[in-house]
Amino acid sequence: MSNKVEDLKKKVLDAQKEGDIASLYVLEQEAHETFDEDTLHGYYANILDLALEKLTKTLGEHRRMDMNEVQDFATLRALYEYAMEHYSVGKASDAAALFEVLSGLSNDEKFSKAMKLHQAAATEGMEIDDFLEKVANLQATEKAGKWYVSEFSKEAQNLLNKLEKKESK
């Protein structure tokens, strides 16, 4: 095994031992270039495990995650990717529950509102492709430089209104 692979594995192991999700994301591109598919799967599973541990700890502390704190930011990203993965494989109700948790987890209002819109679409049973085509505004999201869908069409407000009606019953 080459020194490059060994060095990367050591960096990944050190980050995992430290619970450093942000460092794992910094190493992500190198991991994609170096690791095989099975190793990459384990890499992302470790990120998710760390994020779930941080979620449990945060909920136990009765606090909200701070988008300006690097580990909270990385944790929110990992949990968002997990929710989107559920949504993309047709597990809309699981995704909706995860989006609901995310909407209350962050101190960032824009992120929280975006997660509510994700939740509304998943709760309605909207397919992810329809959500991305009809509700999300991916060009505006990209322009805003966000890592999550943050910009939406006018259709989004209708979904949010439906969700709020359901929640108020």
In short:
The protein is mainly α.
Describe the structure.
The chain is mainly alpha-helical and 169 residues long. It has a domain of 78 residues. It is 77% helix and 0% strand. Helix 4 crosses helix 5, helix 5 runs antiparallel to helix 6 and helix 6 runs antiparallel to helix 7. It is globular, with a radius of gyration of 17 Å.
Q: What is the H-and-E element order?
A: HHHHHHHHHH
Helix content: over 70%
- Report the biggest beta sheet as strand number plus sense, adding barrel if it closes: none
- Got a strand count? 0
Q: What percent of residues are in strands?
A: under 5%
Radius of gyration: 17 Å
Mean pLDDT: 94
Distance between the termini: 60 Å
Q: Which term fits the overall shape?
A: globular
Low-pLDDT runs of 5+ residues are: none
Number of helices: 10
Structural category: mainly alpha
Q: What key phrases describe this protein's structure?
A:
single chain; 169 residues
Give the SSE map:
Blueprint: H1 3-18, H2 21-26, H3 28-34, H4 37-60, H5 70-88, H6 92-105, H7 109-123, H8 128-135, H9 138-144, H10 155-168
